[in-house]
C-alpha cells in the first residue's frame, strides 16, 4: 500500500482536480466546465492497476529473478568456497586452470581487437554511406546471433577440418587451425562479431555525417576527421560494444567446444574447463573457475550500467 | 573571390535536384539562394563547397576549376543549418579545429592559434564562452560559434546553409542584421541559402530565386519583389492575390467579365493575374474592374485588411486586400476593386 500512496503523491495534478467535485472547496471558475464535463468519482488512480494486481506482478517478477538468476549465482560462489578459501585458491593455481585462464584472455584479446576494427568499419559503412545491399549487410551482421553457436563451430570444422575444404592443404603446409588457438579465436570472433557493430550503428546513424562534413570543410584529412571527430563521438558506444563483446568472448562455450579438441592445458578455455572438471566430480575446482566467470559477468553488468548512463548523457560531456 | 557555376546538373536517383544551373557571384557579394524546400538550393551550395559532386557542369572559384579539389582543399567556410559543432570539444577547440588540422608545414604555433581564436571569438562577441561545450549554448550562440569556426581558416568564400533556420523569430532577426554588418566588416564573398523571403530580401545584395532545380530569377531584392520574372517568383515572394483570367488579344476577362486592364503582350489563352495585396485600390461600387462584398475587416497599425468575396459563376472567391486607413471599411459593404499594379503570366501546362 505504501507503494500506491507513493505513486499517487507523485501525480499532484490529479490530486488537485479529483476531489474538487465533492469537497466544499469551490473549484476555480475557469475550470468549472472541466469538472462538469467529467465528474471524477473514482476511488483510486485510474491510470494504473489496482494495488493487489501490481503486488502480484512485482512479486512474480522478483521471484522469477531470484530463482533463475540470483540463486544460481549464489550457488556458484557457495560451491566454490565450500572447502574454504585455501582450496579455492589452490584450485585456481592448478597449471590446467592457469593455462585455461591464459588461453581465455588471449582469445578474448584477439577477438575483441579484431571485432573492434571490423565493427567500426561495418558500422561506418552502414551508417555513413548509401549503397545497394546495405539491408542485406545489416541482416548478415546479425547472423552470428541467430545461428546456434554449435553450428558456428561446425562451420569452421567443415572448412578447416581434415575432411574439410581447406584441411588437406593446411595439413600439407603444417598449419594448425582446428584444435589450436587460431581455430578457437576464429570461432570466437565469428560468434562475437555483432556486438561492436550493433552498438555503433544506431549511434552513428543518429549522429549523421554533419560533423564529419564540417571537419572536412575545415581542411581535415580523412584520418584526422576519424580520430578527432568520429572516434570521440562514438567512444562510449564503442566501449559498450567492446565490453559485451569481451564478456561473450570469455564466456563462449558452444562454438569453442566444437573447434577446441579439449586438449588439457592447451586448448581448454575457462568455460570448457569448468565442464570437464565438473564431469570429473571436482566440484570445488570447477566452481572456482566458474566463479571467475561469474565475477566477470558482475563486473560487466556494473560497467555496462555506467556506460549506458554515459551514453544517455553523451550530449552533455562534463569537463574532461 | 568570384565564383562561377556553369551548366550544373545533379540528380538523386530519378529526382533532378539541379537542372542546368548557371550562376556568377562577384567578389565580395552577399548572395541569397531563395526557394522552397526541394528547389535545389542546398544542393547547389554543397556542390560549391565540395560536399556534393555534380553529374555534369563546371564550378570555378577565383578562376580555377574547383571540381579537381576535394572539400578539404577548397578553403571554403561552410556553416551548417544545425551548426554541426563538435560536441566533445569546447567552443575554443571548435574554433581552433581548422587551424590545428593544417598540414604541419604551414601549421601555426600554439600562441598564434590561441590569439587567432581569441580574435574570432571577439568578432562574434562570444569570447566569454570559450570554455563551454556546444550543448551549453543557446541556438544563436551556437550559430555564431559555427560562423567563427568557419572563418578561422580564412575562407576564400563563405557558404551558409539555412543559417538561421533553426532559431526562433527574435534571435533570427538579430542575427540577420548582425550577419549583414559582419559581412560589411570582413567582405568575404558569401552565399546563404534560405527559404525565408524576408531574410533573403533583408540581408542579401542579390537574390537568386530557385524552384524545382532551376533558377527562376536573379536580381536585387527590390527587383525580385517589384519585377518578378515568373509567376512562381510573384507567388513566392510577397503576398499576392492570384486570380485565373482569360486573355484574348489585349483584353483580359475574369469569369467571362472583362476587366479594364491590359494584357501587355501575354499570349491569348488561360492566364493568371497577380496583384499585391496593397496594390488593389478599393473604391465605391461600380467604379473598378472587380466587384465584391467585404466579409470581414481587421485593422492593425497603418493598414486594414479586408476579406472581399468575389461572386462568380464558379462559386465564391475570397481575396485579402490591404488598404490604408484613410477610409474605414465596413463588413457587408459592396466595393469595387481596381489593380493599381499587376502582372499577368500565361498559365503553365
From TrEMBL, chain B:
Ranges where the ABC transporter domain occurs: 3-237
Keywords in alphabetical order: ATP-binding, Cell membrane, Membrane, Nucleotide-binding, Sulfate transport, Translocase, Transport
Presence of the UniProt keyword ATP-binding in the record: yes
CDD domains, per the entry: ABC_CysA_sulfate_importer
UniProt-listed SMART domains: AAA
GO cellular component: ATP-binding cassette (ABC) transporter complex
Taxonomic superkingdom: Bacteria
Pfam family, one: ABC_tran
GO MF term set: ABC-type sulfate transporter activity; ATP binding; ATP hydrolysis activity
SUPFAM superfamilies to which the protein is assigned, alphabetical: MOP-like, P-loop containing nucleoside triphosphate hydrolases
Record's keyword annotation contains Cell membrane: yes
Family: Belongs to the ABC transporter superfamily.
NCBIfam families documented for this protein: 3a0106s01 (TIGR00968)
Function: Involved in beta-(1-->2)glucan export. Transmembrane domains (TMD) form a pore in the inner membrane and the ATP-binding domain (NBD) is responsible for energy generation.
Name used for this protein in its record: Sulfate ABC transporter ATP-binding protein
Amino acid at each position: 500500500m505504501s507503494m500506491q500512496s507513493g505513486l499517487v503523491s507523485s501525480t499532484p495534478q490529479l490530486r488537485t482536480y479529483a476531489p474538487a467535485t465533492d469537497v466544499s472547496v469551490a473549484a476555480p471558475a475557469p475550470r468549472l466546465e472541466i469538472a462538469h464535463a467529467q465528474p471524477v468519482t473514482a476511488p483510486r488512480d485510474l491510470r494504473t492497476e489496482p494495488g493487489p494486481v501490481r503486488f502480484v506482478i512485482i512479486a512474480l517478477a522478483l521471484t522469477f529473478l531470484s530463482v533463475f538468476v540470483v540463486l544460481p549465482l549464489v550457488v556458484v560462489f557457495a560451491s566454490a568456497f565450500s572447502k574454504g578459501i585455501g582450496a579455492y585458491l589452490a584450485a585456481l593455481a592448478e597449471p590446467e586452470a592457469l593455462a585455461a585462464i591464459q588461453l581465455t584472455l588471449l582469445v578474448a584479446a584477439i577477438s575483441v581487437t579484431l571485432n573492434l576494427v571490423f565493427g567500426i568499419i561495418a558500422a561506418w559503412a552502414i551508417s555513413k554511406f548509401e549503397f545497394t545491399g546495405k539491408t542485406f549487410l545489416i541482416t548478415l551482421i546479425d547472423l552470428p546471433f541467430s545461428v546456434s553457436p554449435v553450428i558456428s563451430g561446425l562451420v569452421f570444422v567443415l572448412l578447416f577440418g581434415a575432411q574439410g575444404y581447406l584441411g588437406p592443404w593446411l595439413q600439407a603446409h603444417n598449419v594448425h587451425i582446428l584444435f589450436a588457438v587460431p581455430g578457437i579465436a576464429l570461432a570466437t570472433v565469428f560468434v562475437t562479431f555483432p556486438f561492436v557493430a550493433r552498438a555503433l550503428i544506431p549511434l552513428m546513424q543518429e549522429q549523421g555525417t554533419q560533423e564529419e562534413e564540417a571537419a572536412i570543410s575545415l581542411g581535415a584529412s580523412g584520418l584526422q576527421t576519424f580520430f578527432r571527430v568520429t572516434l570521440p563521438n562514438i567512444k562510449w558506444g564503442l566501449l559498450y560494444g567492446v565490453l559485451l563483446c569481451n564478456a561473450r568472448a570469455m564466456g563462449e562455450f558452444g562454438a569453442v567446444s566444437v573447434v577446441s579438441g579439449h586438449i588439457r592445458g592447451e586448448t581448454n578455455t575457462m568455460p570448457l574447463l569448468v565442464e570437464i572438471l565438473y564431469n570429473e566430480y571436482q566440484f570445488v575446482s570447477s566452481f572456482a573457475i566458474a566463479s571467475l566467470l561469474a565475477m566477470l559477468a558482475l563486473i560487466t553488468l556494473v560497467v555496462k550500467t555506467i556506460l549506458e548512463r554515459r551514453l544517455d548523457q553523451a550530449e552533455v560531456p562534463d569537463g574532461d | 573571390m568570384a565564383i562561377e557555376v556553369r551548366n550544373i546538373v545533379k540528380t538523386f536517383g530519378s529526382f533532378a535536384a539541379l537542372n542546368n544551373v548557371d550562376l556568377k557571384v562577384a567578389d565580395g557579394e552577399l548572395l541569397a539562394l531563395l526557394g522552397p524546400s526541394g528547389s535545389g538550393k542546398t544542393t547547389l551550395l554543397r556542390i560549391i563547397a565540395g560536399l556534393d559532386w555534380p553529374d555534369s557542369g563546371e564550378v570555378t572559384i577565383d578562376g580555377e576549376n574547383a571540381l579537381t579539389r576535394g572539400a578539404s582543399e577548397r578553403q571554403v567556410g561552410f556553416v551548417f543549418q544545425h551548426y554541426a559543432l563538435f560536441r566533445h570539444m569546447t567552443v575554443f577547440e571548435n574554433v581552433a579545429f581548422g587551424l590545428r588540422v593544417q598540414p604541419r608545414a604551414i601549421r601555426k604555433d600554439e600562441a598564434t592559434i590561441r590569439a587567432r581564436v581569441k580574435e574570432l571569438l571577439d568578432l562574434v562577441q562570444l569570447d566569454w564562452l570559450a570554455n563551454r561545450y556546444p550543448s551549453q549554448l543557446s541556438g544563436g550562440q551556437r550559430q555564431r560559434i559555427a560562423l567563427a569556426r568557419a572563418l578561422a581558416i580564412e575562407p576564400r568564400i563563405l557558404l551558409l546553409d539555412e543559417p538561421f533556420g533553426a532559431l526562433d523569430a527574435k534571435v533570427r532577426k538579430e542575427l540577420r542584421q548582425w550577419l549583414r554588418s559582419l559581412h560589411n566588416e570582413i567582405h568575404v564573398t558569401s552565399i546563404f541559402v534560405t527559404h525565408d523571403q524576408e531574410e533573403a530580401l533583408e540581408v542579401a545584395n542579390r537574390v537568386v530565386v530557385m524552384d524545382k532545380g532551376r533558377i527562376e530569377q536573379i536580381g536585387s531584392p527590390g527587383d525580385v519583389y517589384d519585377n518578378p520574372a515568373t509567376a512562381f517568383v510573384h507567388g513566392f515572394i510577397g503576398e499576392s492575390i492570384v486570380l485565373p483570367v482569360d486573355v484574348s488579344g489585349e483584353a483580359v476577362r475574369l469569369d467571362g467579365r472583362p476587366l479594364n486592364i491590359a494584357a501587355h503582350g501575354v499570349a491569348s489563352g488561360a492566364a493568371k493575374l497577380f496583384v499585391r495585396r496593397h496594390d488593389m485600390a478599393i473604391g465605391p461600387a461600380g467604379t473598378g474592374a472587380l466587384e465584391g462584398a467585404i466579409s470581414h475587416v481587421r485593422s492593425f497599425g497603418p493598414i486594414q485588411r479586408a476579406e472581399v468575396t468575389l461572386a462568380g459563376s464558379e462559386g465564391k472567391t475570397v481575396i485579402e486586400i490591404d488598404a490604408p486607413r484613410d477610409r474605414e471599411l465596413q463588413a457587408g459593404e459592396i466595393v469595387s476593386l481596381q489593380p493599381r499594379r499587376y502582372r499577368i503570366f500565361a498559365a503553365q501546362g
